[in-house]
Write a structure and sequence with these properties.
The chain is α+β, with helices and mostly antiparallel strands. The chain is 22% helix and 20% strand.
Length: 225
């Protein structure tokens, strides 16, 4: 179901109607720098919306995914999300330019609902952002909540450009909250769900790429929650 912020503001939809929430990227909420933070503040500064989102995040049978702008938005909503108090904010890439490329990431062990059974996988993924560098305020988020990181071709952590396209420390580019229901990431796995989305793919993948498993996992979790 496509739900716009105007739908929530007008009351046409309410988050209590849904079990899952995906906040998309692609310069949603304006093709400008800081759009994700602006999106979040439209929630934080509206008492009714703030209460609605907080109630959604608090429920143990609800899940959410934030990608790119949606990642920036949800990281700014961290005060409303249980177990997300040490999430970073996302700031301007060290390159000072928009980065659009295919990067290699590794799935890390975590409780993320979306990434169960994918730990240790190294998969190419699309990145397209100008503000993807994770900046931690004081304490680095617990390693259990780090779920995705950029790696070099040999599997080592990518600390340098271009394998690390934005300069995030330890290559971190995906996180989840402490119970794994809420996951945020800068890359775009939703753009690469089918093998045909790649210029080349190994034959054993079949029709779907490994990223399809994220959404299979979410559907399975939703059926059990």
């Amino acid at each position: 179901v496509d739900v716009h912020m105007s739908d929530l503001l007008s009351g046409r939809f309410n988050l209590e109607q849904f079990q899952g929430l995906a906040a998309c990227g692609g310069f949603s909420y304006g093709d400008v720098l800081g759009a994700g933070q602006g999106w979040a503040k439209s929630i934080l500064f509206n008492p009714a919306l703030r209460d609605q989102f907080e109630a959604f995040f608090q429920r143990s049978d609800r899940f959410a995914l934030g990608v790119c702008n949606g990642c920036q938005m949800m990281s700014t909503l961290a005060p409303l999300i249980p177990g997300a108090e040490h999430w970073p904010r996302f700031i301007r890439n060290r390159s000072e330019q928009f980065e659009a490329r295919l990067s290699l990431v590794e799935v890390m062990p975590s409780p993320s609902v979306f990434l169960q059974g994918m730990e240790g996988s190294r998969i190419p993924v699309a990145v397209a952002h100008g503000e993807g560098r994770a900046q931690f305020q004081q304490t680095m988020v617990d390693q259990q909540q780090q779920c995705l990181r950029y790696v070099e071709n040999d599997g080592s952590v990518a600390s340098r450009y271009p394998a690390n396209p934005n300069g995030s420390p330890e290559g971190i580019t995906g996180l989840c909250n402490s119970d794994g229901r809420i996951t945020i990431m800068m890359p775009h796995p939703e753009r690469l769900l089918r093998a045909m989305n790649f210029s080349w793919a190994p034959a054993h993948w079949g029709e779907h790429s490994p990223w399809q498993q994220m959404f299979n996992n979410a559907r399975a979790w939703a059926g059990e929650a």
